[in-house]
Design brief:
The chain is mostly helical. Helix content is 87%, strand content 0%.
Length: 130
């Protein structure tokens, strides 16, 4: 607000109301944007868990194939299948752990920037009312 003390109090309150309404609309838009960004990150982390689960399943199936080949054949085929199975299982385990950690650390529905600007808005409005 401008420092013009000659304006009627009704006009000042009207202007304050308009400014607060505009500010709250902008805060809501910021909150929507922030939540949308965090939700996108969460979807990516969930996809990582899914990919990890698929890789883990492939690893398990290869390990089963290695067991079958190990029983039916001698060491060379069995060892090769075991190595491939361990690589897939290890990659799947890594992806699942990473995705779980990222999901646990995500603050998806906490719009931190919006909360901070709302605090600033509240302080500003209190100062304007004095």
């Amino acid at each position: 607000m401008q420092g013009n003390n000659n304006r009627p109090i009704g006009e000042l309150f009207s202007e304050l109301g308009t400014e607060l309404r505009t500010l709250l609309q902008e805060e809501m838009e910021l909150a929507r944007t922030e939540i949308s960004e965090k939700f996108s990150r969460l979807l990516k982390d969930v996809a990582a868990v899914g990919v990890g689960a698929v890789l883990g399943l492939v690893g398990f199936l290869v390990l089963v194939a290695a067991l079958v080949l190990g029983v039916g054949m001698f060491m060379q085929l069995w060892a090769a299948a075991l190595i491939v199975g361990l690589v897939f299982a290890g990659a799947g385990f890594f992806m699942i752990q990473k995705g779980r950690k990222d999901i646990a650390n995500a603050k998806v529905f906490v719009p931190e920037k919006t909360a901070e600007t709302l605090k600033e808005t509240t302080q500003w409005a209190k100062a304007e009312m004095k």
